[in-house]
Specification:
By secondary structure, the chain is mainly alpha-helical. 90% of the residues lie in helices and 0% in strands.
């Protein structure tokens, strides 16, 4: 009984983490638009990048917690780790001001995050 409750809690935490990641990636698209049109857009996009990266790390943690106690599939851990790798590349490209790769990668990350959310 306790294992089932832990599994349900972990599953819910995993859903929350994926939802947070998806929302923060979407908000990054919004602040990218503000970056082009307002003086405070750069600050919001910079802060949003940190929040998005943190939510991606939360997704990795949630996937590991869902996997470890119940001995479930390792697939969510691999997906979350892949997102963390993409987020790391995204941050580097943003700092380096390479919009020709940064923007399409952001769109890809949003699409993959929505897909991961739909699968849950």
């Amino acid at each position: 009984m306790a294992i089932q409750a832990t599994r349900q809690r972990s599953f819910s935490f995993l859903q929350i983490a994926i939802t947070a990641q998806t929302l923060t990636i979407f908000l990054q698209a919004v602040t990218a638009g503000l970056l082009l049109t307002s003086s405070y857009g750069e600050t919001l996009h910079s802060v949003g990048a940190r929040v998005m990266y943190g939510s991606t790390m939360l997704y990795v943690l949630a996937a590991m917690l869902a996997w470890k106690p119940g001995g479930g599939s390792l697939r969510p851990v691999w997906h979350a780790s892949g997102f963390l790798a993409l987020a790391s590349v995204q941050v580097v490209l943003g700092i380096a001001h390479v919009p020709s790769v940064h923007l399409p990668l952001g769109v890809l990350m949003f699409g993959l995050s929505v897909l991961a959310l739909a699968r849950r």
